Amino acid sequence: MKRSVKTLLAMVLAAAVLTALAGLGALDTLDYAACDALYQSRAASDGEVVLIGIDDRAIAELGPYSQWSREIIAQVLDLLNASEDCRPAAIGIDVLYTGDSSPEADRALAEAAGRYGNVVAACLAQFGADTAEDGSGEYYLEDFTLRAFEEPYEALGDAAALGHINAMLDDDGVLRHHLLRYTAPDGRDIPSMALAVAQMYRDYWDLGPVELPPVDAHNFWYVPFTGLPGDFSESISVADVLSGEWTAEDFADRAVLIGPYTAGLQDSYVTSIDHARQMYGVEFQANAIQALLNGTYKRAVSDRLQLAALFALLLLGMWGFWRRKVAAAAALWAALCGGWLALCWGMYQAGWILHALWVPAGVTILFALCLAVNYIQAAAERRQVTNTFKRYVAPEIVNEILKEGTEALELGGKLTNIAVLFVDVRGFTTMSEMLEPPQVVAILNRYLTLIADCILKNGGTLDKFVGDAAMAFWGAPLPQEDYVMRACRAAADMVSGSAALSQELMEQFGRTVSFGIGVHVGEAVVGNIGSPQRMDYTAIGDTVNTSARLEANAPGGTIFISRAVADALEGRIRTTSLGDSIKLKGKKDGFEILTLDEILG
Prior knowledge:
This protein is an alpha/beta fold. The chain contains 18 helices and 22 strands. The chain has helices at 2-23, 28-39, 56-62, 70-80, 103-116, 154-159, 193-204, 238-243, 281-294, 303-321, 326-349, 358-389, 395-404, 428-432, 437-457, 483-509, 542-553, 563-568; strands at residues 49-54, 90-93, 119-133, 139-150, 161-164, 177-179, 181-183, 189-191, 220-222, 255-260, 268-271, 274-280, 299-300, 352-353, 414-426, 461-466, 469-474, 514-530, 535-540, 558-562, 573-577, 593-599.
């Protein structure tokens, strides 16, 4: 009972520790990567979002980007809106134009942006930790505070709608969340460029307001990517629009994004859909716009609920792994890990995000831990079993116990049918009075060695030596075939072996002894009997007592057996019945005793 309680407490503690580690963020980096691999995948795009890149080709033809006049983008806007009958639904300029350049260029860009009413200009904020007041005069540290705000130069800001182009990475340096909106220092609500463009697109088509995604406390939402790096690009360069290779008709009714599309402009990020290749900021905006237009948002399941599920599954796993065979434990491990990942994928399709790695990582750690502990315990138990039984039990029985495990021992005892043999050296006390002590010990050891050899050779368990007597039994600790015959063969071997030994001792010491043996079969309690400080693996009960009484009455060189033994071996042994002429202590009249004369065949 105490062991069961300790095991349960160990399981609860292990599950609690792993759950706490997950809740404290120890698995976050690996979990993010696992979620990205499981959840993010390329999907079909409707083609309504198109990119015009400030790419290497445009820079090669128009010169270094830092030297570009703002009139270049103004010309692009005019060309995109060349016809009133075919204009883009919305145009987002993913470039921050702050401060003044040349008055003509600034005026040209602002007028082009305001002329058509379908342009979103970029603004940018900087966030960081800062002190804030809670309203009662107390200050606290706010970890997400707007510390600076950059917006387009005044004329462009007045002419175009505003949308911020902040791309804020998660703790692992991967871009997977998008800041939906924030409040500017002057109180204005600043949507993201993706939201501003998506809303302008829907207004163009009279589709109503954008269905907003679920956001966290800081207004971030999880972006389900549609395309990999390069998927939204149709290889359209600013240079192609200026040269007339692409005309206004190609962009009619679509959402158009203009932005950096070259590594030299340092506007690229590792995203959750592809950790190997970086995605340009304008491509990220396109993915966010597509998600806002699709309205296929994902909401994270509460961490508290997931931690509770994790704890429960870890407990289940611990129970399934503890002291189980490797194949069964491995099957449960695979079922828990595979089942959780399948659940995560199914929930994601339904719009919910689960931590993909929490359960597989925790279950795998417990699986490895339990395998190690099970191996160590099994090795210790094997040593314990081997050390305990190898002195008393035939080697093949020890091997069988090791195969079956300690459950086969049923510590504490169990009722089972066994054959019990008692043997005593007749005449040894008289002989010991006539010989020197070293001679007595030598003779006794010879007889006891013979007894032990006969018992072990026939697969018996040598229970104990008591002076010049010994007790053995068959049929335990594991069931044995023909265990009654094994006991009788051991008795017969002792008798035949003692004849040769007696002749040898007669020649050496002029003295000889013989064996009196009793064998009985029946039920007895077999197991570890005693106290926690000192216990013996033995058998107790009336069957044991009866065998001892048979041996006590058997003359030297004689094997007394009970009727139960004779019936069990009927036709296989030759016996002589003594009837109830010999009265055994504790037995009623009518208890039949027989001598075992010969084992047939």
